[in-house]
Amino acid sequence: MRYLGLLSSVLVLSACASPLPSPDPSQAWVELRSNAGTLLMADRLDGQRLNDGRYFQVPAGAHELQARFQFEVNSGGGQDGLSEPRQVTCEIRIRHDNFVAGQRYRLEARPMQMKAQAWLYDAQRNVLARSKVLRCGTF
Question: How far apart are the first and last CA of the chain?
Answer without folding.
Answer: 9
